[in-house]
Write a structure and sequence with these properties.
The structure holds two protein chains of two kinds. Chain A is mostly helical. In chain A, 76% of the residues lie in helices and 0% in strands. By secondary structure, chain B is an all-alpha fold. Chain B has one domain (3-101). Chain B has helices spanning 3-24, 32-50, 61-76, 81-98. The N and C termini of chain B lie far apart (54 Å). Classes of the chains: A mainly alpha, B mainly alpha. At the A-B interface, α1, α2, α3, α4 and α5 of A face α1, α2, α3 and α4 of B.
Chain lengths: 232, 102
């Protein structure tokens, strides 16, 4: 398939597979919190995010306020705003306002990662394709997890936990090998992330990622400013 | 309170975070620092998300390290994303099978 939509769908396969296993766990968790499979499915369909949904379900289960819900979603998901700004810089001219409204739905960590490394401009149909396959994986896994409980042996679901991270490594390692600046940024972010994890145990995972990414990117921009002709 | 009100609040907040910058941020950024910064953001985000979380992703550090090693090697040789991702999982699975036999 050579079309942008087809290329997007192919790029979405590893994401969809990874989502299938991660959302399976979310489905089990949502069912445990007293939600129906349909409710869990609708949360996944309307939110398309892992950490925010997991926290949201625990707020629902605890009977929290709507203000708390809104603030928690804002803090956990604010990284998407950074990603959206980053992607906005490489959108194709064919990305009209209504198409931006539609494609914005699909800005997740993984879809952003793949879209931001696309060569040249980012086209609407590519984002639709990658979002479609990813979303199918996400809602299917949620529904199966909530409705059927464990359908896969535990050894397999455990090993599938590596799919998304393996994909992340496949995205960052090749450019880090070619460009020293990226290598330094990657190592800085990883080191900061370890510091947060082991030395600041109270820090939430989502917030730690935001801080580590901001600091490591700033270090990269200060030490290795990009020359004009290197910009895509 | 109806569960659907919670779900609506979650969905609206999450969508607004995504759509406001994506739909309304039109100007090309001029600052070299900010352009460089944004260029490095995806690598920094992914690195911070992956390490050290990857070592806990299978519930067993030994199988996770085996999978991570396979992913690093294959990624170093620039293999496609899906190959790296599934090989890493496969390695962790095999390691989990072999481990009890040792």
């Amino acid at each position: 398939m050579k079309s942008e939509f087809g290329k997007g769908m192919i790029a979405g396969i590893p994401i969809g597979l990874g989502y299938l296993s991660v959302s399976f766990g979310f489905g089990i968790m949502a069912a445990g919190a007293g939600l129906s499979a349909f409710e869990a499915f609708m949360i996944s369909l309307t939110n398309l995010t892992s950490a925010g949904q997991a926290q949201g379900v625990s707020i629902i289960a605890a009977g929290g306020t709507l203000i708390e819900m809104a603030l928690v979603q804002l803090i956990i998901n604010i990284r998407y705003a950074l990603m959206a700004i980053s992607l906005s810089q490489k959108l194709d001219d064919s990305f009209t306002f209504p198409k931006r409204l539609l494609a914005a739905y699909g800005i997740t960590d993984e879809i952003f990662a793949v879209c931001s490394t696309v060569k040249g401009t980012l086209k609407p149909n590519f984002m639709y394709g990658i979002t479609l396959i990813s979303t199918i994986g996400w809602v299917t896994g949620t529904f199966l997890g909530a409705a059927a409980g464990e359908i896969l042996p535990a050894e397999i679901t455990a090993a599938l936990g590596l799919v998304l991270y393996g994909m992340f490594l496949a995205i960052i390692i090749p450019p880090a090998r070619k460009e020293k600046s990226i290598l330094i940024v990657v190592i800085t972010a990883a080191a900061l992330s370890c510091i947060c994890k082991y030395l600041v145990p109270g820090l939430s995972g989502g917030f730690a990622v935001i801080m580590c990414a901001l600091v490591a990117s700033a270090v990269g921009a200060l030490l290795f400013p990009r020359k004009e002709d290197e910009q895509e | 309170m109806s569960i659907w009100i919670y779900i609506a609040v979650m969905a609206v907040v999450t969508y607004l975070i995504r759509v406001l910058p994506f739909a309304f941020f039109r100007q090309k950024i001029k600052s070299q620092f900010i352009k460089s910064f944004l260029y490095y953001v995806p690598y920094a985000v992914l690195s911070a998300m992956t390490i050290p979380a990857i070592f806990y992703s299978t519930g067993n550090i030994t199988t996770a390290v085996a999978g991570t090693a396979v992913a690093l090697i294959l990624a170093y040789f620039d293999l496609p994303l899906i190959v790296v991702a599934l090989a890493a999982s496969g390695a962790a699975y095999l390691c989990g099978l072999i481990l009890p036999l040792l």
